[in-house]
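Re: weekly structure request thread

Next one in the queue (509 aa):
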Amino acid sequence: MSDIKTEETIDKTSNGSPKPTSPNSDLKLDFASFWEYSPAPESSDFVEIDEKYNHFINGEFVEPVKGRYMKSINPATEEVLCEFAEGTSEDVDKAVKAARKAYEKTWSKLSGNERGKYIFRIARMIQERARELAIIESIDGGKPIRESRDVDVPLSAAYFFYYAGWADKLNYAFPGRKPKSLGVCGQIIPWNFPLLMLAWKIAPALATGNTVVLKPAESTPVTALKFAEICRDAGLPDGVVNIVTGAGQTGSEIVNHPDVNKIAFTGSTNVGKIIQKSLAGTDKKFTLELGGKGPNIVFEDAPLDQTVEGIVNAIFFNQGHVCCAGSRLLVQEGIAERLIQKLKDRMETLIVGDPLDKNTDIGAINSKAQFERIQNYLEIGVNEGAEIHQSSCQIPENGYFCRPTIFTNVSQSNRVVQEEIFGPVLTIQTFRTPDEAIEKANNTPYGLASGVWTDKGSKIFKVGQSVRSGVMWSNTYNKFDPTSPFGGYKESGIGREGGLHGLYPYIKF
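Done, posted below.
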């Protein structure tokens, strides 16, 4: 190998894998066999998914009142994974009554120390069943097993551990005040992080002495139903946590139920507006964590290789199904050409495929509807005059898969710049000065999360103070911690989840 020249250009093998060739020699250096990854599928043989699931109400699984069921589809294969109950007003009413009874007779009367023990036990059981939960999250939602295994499930357990610690310390959290629980909390979670969003909502609600009626997304209900099993096995008192499955109408029944004291919703901005209108004039507390169009700002003094990795993580993590994704890249003009080329080269190494293969970087789009939405935006971008670039990777014939995509030559008014696509699609703009970057960053209806890349602390503080964003990451992206609050401004939502701030929506004084 000592005769091989160090200067190389990149060619492609027949299956899309990079293959180095030397420009100074007629010899083709076929390294494909060195660079190809052998399949590394995660075994799912031990995972049990029932053919049919019912609602979890008052500590047991009960059939829906009207006997209706929906289907959950594996987005990587387009095969039916299971059937689950479709909740109606009668089912929601049963769940709310069970939650109210549990609140008044059991949960609100326990000491914080006792409540903390239950929450801690749930956290430990999530850890014990981590492998099973990670596999189900990937099968039901399409996300790569590496992400489910290393991010979603560990963080879910961490949030329960964190709020278990707060359960007996609420008087210290709010010194000089006497916090009281609210009652019954209605919670509606999205399909992009099913188990993690469940943890964000249920853990602080239980820690503060409330009971819960939760509806998971209709395309990813299975881990929530597995969590119901964990609640049952942990000995949680009946009715403290209730899971009612269904589609949008089921969520509407929870929002509008007169005996629910608090609504927590994570999802689209349009649905959030509907919920806010429904709650107007009532005394229900609410938090809304909605959409985003995160600007990721790169200055000329940023470390380029590190920045490229951060950009990839910001937009291609979880197929771009992230409300705080860095979906708008703003690059200072002096480095734009080099950075874009590095990004294109890095995109060629990303593997799109089977979510259960540990080599996979980008899994399946969550549903047919979301896949069609992304494809529609790709057409919109091209029709608006943007230049599109997609990686040359192969994608499976079956299932809903989308190659990582970037748009260049876009303007601030383009729909692909202004509207949330919720897929592996990145728009790239340039800027000359920090003020121009800040102006472009703030020029959308959203304000959930942002990133800044520079080696100058002064730029970090200037941008961080000026960008109207609930979260600002510096020289990194998509990093979460249970102690840190999360939430947005403008059309990205109201209220905060996580950290000490995440206790406020679940108490009164």
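Residues 145-166 form the longest helix (22 residues). Residues 7-36 form one domain.
Next request, please.
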